[in-house]
């Protein structure tokens, strides 16, 4: 397709942009969100265990699934919605998938993928028939605004634990770890500090730079003999590099990459045959609602930043970018990853002038170009990847400013949503707490007429579920 045809297809003249600007914007967005290629595999590999395969091999499979699902969803965004937004497996939902659904609830990872697949199909149907407005109104407003911050605390808590900054303690459940005497915690804290400084200074790709810098420092610490190499890096890889040399070792890693990810691709089919109906429905709906509002909120936020909203404050043809999210989620579950969603980091590309779907097409191309290097993920220590959770978690706190803390129903519902998520180690439980509290407090204030019937129904259903679940009647 010639440049003029590309310009006509994406409407460069209408959006006052050109191909050079769109390419620069696409590369910028990719750099800002590419950390997911590293972080998502490390999070999901905590839950996805496959007989006969090492964790490193599973991480590589998930990295491939992450790249493919991100690329496909972003291509749909580019060609169908013509918006400059990048998509990838969402932070928060991948943690919910791994730490709550699989590890805490004991649901097989194949069944969790099945729940994501069903959620994606449901999302496609509801988006196609235009039912998004009713669903958006079904959730209490304080819960909508608190979801981002709640997920932020959840991610922050997980990240600090994985970096051994927060550790278990019998008396108080958790306490501050021995940071100064623990190389992992020390490197993790320094990596977070560097990343936050870069982010505060609006450096593009701050999280990626933070992860790579922390990785390099970790390997230098291992090579210097300051600590046991196996403490801060992969001991087997360290021995390989010591024997073969760094250059040869890296070359062998890149050229030895295996693209067979069939053990996770299609695993959702097996999961569909192993379902406990009530729990499966609850997990699936949690994936659906969090994905729905996260995507809707991100789309509005990024669209507002890029001046894409109309006079009513709405994004025209919002169903199209929502459909890209739905297709990406469905495909992601099929190839072996958690829910795909629109990334707020898309605003970095928009700031560089990205206005059309060609920006998204460049993002997708960058994801595909990263495929030959997925094996290099294995040289990144876990604590370096998990610093992204801490940084993203802090960034997500910005949503609390939209909550009316002076209103009791908003304050109680919002606060419960935010605090229950990390304390119960579950996004679902936090959402449920906020949803149940809102109509009760509103009614007690004499404002019951403001509560929608659907909100009452949802609250009653959740109360019934938790009575059965915490009473031991269902798993």
From TrEMBL:
<dbReference type="InterPro" id="IPR045018">
    <property type="entry name" value="Azg-like"/>
</dbReference>
<dbReference type="InterPro" id="IPR006043">
    <property type="entry name" value="NCS2"/>
</dbReference>
<dbReference type="GO" id="GO:0005345">
    <property type="term" value="F:purine nucleobase transmembrane transporter activity"/>
</dbReference>
<feature type="transmembrane region" description="Helical">
    <location>
        <begin position="383"/>
        <end position="400"/>
    </location>
</feature>
<feature type="transmembrane region" description="Helical">
    <location>
        <begin position="453"/>
        <end position="474"/>
    </location>
</feature>
<dbReference type="Pfam" id="PF00860">
    <property type="entry name" value="Xan_ur_permease"/>
</dbReference>
<keyword id="KW-1133">Transmembrane helix</keyword>
<feature type="transmembrane region" description="Helical">
    <location>
        <begin position="58"/>
        <end position="80"/>
    </location>
</feature>
<protein>
    <submittedName>
        <fullName>Xanthine/uracil/vitamin C permease, AzgA family</fullName>
    </submittedName>
</protein>
<feature type="transmembrane region" description="Helical">
    <location>
        <begin position="113"/>
        <end position="131"/>
    </location>
</feature>
<feature type="transmembrane region" description="Helical">
    <location>
        <begin position="87"/>
        <end position="107"/>
    </location>
</feature>
<feature type="transmembrane region" description="Helical">
    <location>
        <begin position="420"/>
        <end position="441"/>
    </location>
</feature>
<comment type="similarity">
    <text>Belongs to the nucleobase:cation symporter-2 (NCS2) (TC 2.A.40) family. Azg-like subfamily.</text>
</comment>
<feature type="transmembrane region" description="Helical">
    <location>
        <begin position="23"/>
        <end position="43"/>
    </location>
</feature>
<keyword id="KW-1003">Cell membrane</keyword>
<dbReference type="GO" id="GO:0005886">
    <property type="term" value="C:plasma membrane"/>
</dbReference>
<dbReference type="InterPro" id="IPR026033">
    <property type="entry name" value="Azg-like_bact_archaea"/>
</dbReference>
<feature type="transmembrane region" description="Helical">
    <location>
        <begin position="356"/>
        <end position="376"/>
    </location>
</feature>
<feature type="transmembrane region" description="Helical">
    <location>
        <begin position="206"/>
        <end position="226"/>
    </location>
</feature>
<feature type="transmembrane region" description="Helical">
    <location>
        <begin position="280"/>
        <end position="302"/>
    </location>
</feature>
<keyword id="KW-0472">Membrane</keyword>
<feature type="transmembrane region" description="Helical">
    <location>
        <begin position="180"/>
        <end position="199"/>
    </location>
</feature>
<keyword id="KW-0813">Transport</keyword>
<feature type="transmembrane region" description="Helical">
    <location>
        <begin position="143"/>
        <end position="160"/>
    </location>
</feature>
<keyword id="KW-0812">Transmembrane</keyword>
């Amino acid at each position: 397709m010639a440049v003029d045809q590309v310009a006509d297809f994406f409407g460069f003249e209408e959006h006052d942009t050109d191909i050079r600007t769109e390419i620069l914007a696409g590369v910028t967005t990719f750099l800002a969100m590419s950390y997911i290629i590293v972080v998502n595999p490390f999070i999901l590999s905590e839950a996805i265990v496959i007989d006969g395969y090492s964790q490193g091999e599973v991480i590589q499979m998930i990295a491939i699934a992450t790249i493919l699902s991100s690329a496909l969803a972003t291509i749909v965004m580019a060609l169908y919605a013509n918006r400059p937004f990048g998509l990838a497996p969402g932070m928060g939902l991948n943690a919910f998938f791994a730490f709550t659904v699989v590890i805490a609830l004991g649901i097989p990872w194949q069944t969790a993928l099945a729940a994501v697949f069903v959620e994606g199909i449901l999302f496609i149907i509801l988006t196609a028939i235009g039912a998004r407005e009713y669903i958006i109104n079904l959730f209490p407003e304080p819960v909508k605004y608190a979801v981002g911050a709640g997920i932020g605390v959840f991610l922050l808590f997980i990240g600090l634990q994985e970096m051994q900054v927060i550790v278990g303690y019998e008396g108080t459940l958790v306490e501050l770890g021995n940071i100064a005497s623990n190389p992992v915690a020390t490197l993790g804290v320094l990596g977070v500090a560097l990343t936050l400084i870069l982010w505060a200074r609006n450096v593009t790709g701050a999280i990626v730079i933070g992860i790579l810098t922390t990785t390099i420092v970790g390997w230098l610490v291992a090579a210097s003999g300051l600590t046991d190499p196996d403490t801060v890096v992969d001991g087997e890889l360290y021995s390989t590099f010591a024997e073969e040399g760094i250059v040869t070792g890296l070359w062998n890693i890149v050229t030895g990459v295996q693209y067979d990810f069939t053990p996770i691709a299609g695993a959702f089919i097996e999961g569909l045959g192993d379902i406990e109906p009530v729990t499966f429905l609850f997990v699936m709906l949690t994936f659906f609602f969090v994905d729905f509002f996260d995507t809707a909120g991100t789309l509005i936020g990024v669209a507002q930043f890029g001046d894409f909203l109309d006079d009513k404050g709405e994004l025209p043809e919002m169903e199209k970018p929502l459909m890209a999210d739905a297709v990406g989620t469905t495909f992601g579950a099929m190839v072996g990853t958690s829910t795909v969603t629109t990334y707020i980091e898309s605003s970095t590309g928009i700031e560089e002038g990205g206005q059309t779907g060609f920006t998204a097409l460049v993002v997708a191309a960058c994801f595909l170009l990263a495929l030959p290097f997925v094996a290099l993920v294995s040289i990144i220590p876990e604590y370096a990847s998990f610093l992204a959770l801490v940084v993203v978690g802090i960034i997500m706190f910005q949503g609390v400013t939209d909550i009316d803390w002076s209103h009791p129903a908003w304050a109680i519902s919002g606060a419960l949503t935010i605090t229950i998520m990390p304390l119960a180690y579950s996004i679902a439980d936090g959402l449920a707490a906020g949803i149940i509290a809102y109509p009760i407090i509103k009614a007690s204030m004499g404002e019951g007429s403001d509560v929608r019937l659907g909100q009452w129904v949802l609250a009653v259903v959740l109360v019934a579920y938790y009575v059965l679940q915490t009473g031991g009647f269902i798993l």
